[in-house]
Protein: FAD-dependent oxidoreductase
Organism: Streptomyces thermolineatus
Amino acid sequence: MDGQHIVVVGAGYAGLAAATRAGRRHRVTLIAPESHFLHRVRSHETAAGLPGRRPSIAHLLRGRAVTHLQTRVTGLDLAGGKVTVEEGPAVGYDTLVYALGSRTAWHGVPGAAEHAYPAERADEPARRIGGAVRPGTVAVVGGGATGIELAAELAEAHPRWRVRLVTAGEAGGWLSERGRAHVLRVLERLGVRVEEHAEVTAVDAGGLHTSRGPVGADVVVWAASLEPHPLAAEAGLEVAPDGRAVVDGHLRSVSHPGVYVVGDAAAVTVPGVGRLRAGCATAQPMGVHVGNVLGGRTAGPFRFRYVLQCLSLGRRDGLVQTVRADDSMRPAVLTGAPARWVKAAIVNGVLLNLR
């Protein structure tokens, strides 16, 4: 131990990976209000009422010189080297790792925040559906990976409920032709009605109002898009137009080199790959890299390339989409139970890799 104090704000995939590795060598304070890890890539399982797999943060930090301060960050004093928190005095640091990540974006849609459940609160629609006297309709907003996984899981777990997947574009539109075709076949088999090119304009107690007409729903789950936490911009870190902090090749803020930014909070451009998308697949490798740099186990710039994308399509089916290094689609896909096993192995490996 050389006496350096590292503060990590945020206990997601990136923040925890950085804290556990830096904590091998330095004194680390992890600031996050949660007591248990939010395994976001399993939110579709939580929404369907399946048993949760959320290990305690204390368990993940065992054996490391990391103190978990269970409170919210309210501000960053970058000039003074302090983090202000909701409860207690400000926390000083020698090095800051900013990993507050992203949150559901409502895009100003009237009634969305009041009447829809974001993926971060997936346990709430599970209680609504599980406690309903009679089956009804659940509408999932968003045709990306999270929305597709939610729709498939809910339809399989609750076959008496009607499930609607509503998206402004195409469901799985970024996938290869074979990949998207498989997704649509599985959703049809599970009884999911897909409403494409239907932009949601309002949400109320009766369901959705869209550019193609109303979609009645008893429960609305919102998985349309994410946005970075605004604290980076508010504190004075240089941010990209989408609000993510701009970093150099070592994942340090270009405006404040004493601050590392990792995960969905960071606007990262990798040579030969391009701007990285937000998500667990990129967040955890960033946290691992910074944690290893601070822990003295590696040096040099952050390196990354894409290999594949995975989707769960219920308990018995899935999709593994092969991609090029820059995340563009290859034609080859793996489907069915083998793809589901691959996805499960990757998701389980994520927890192991946090340490």
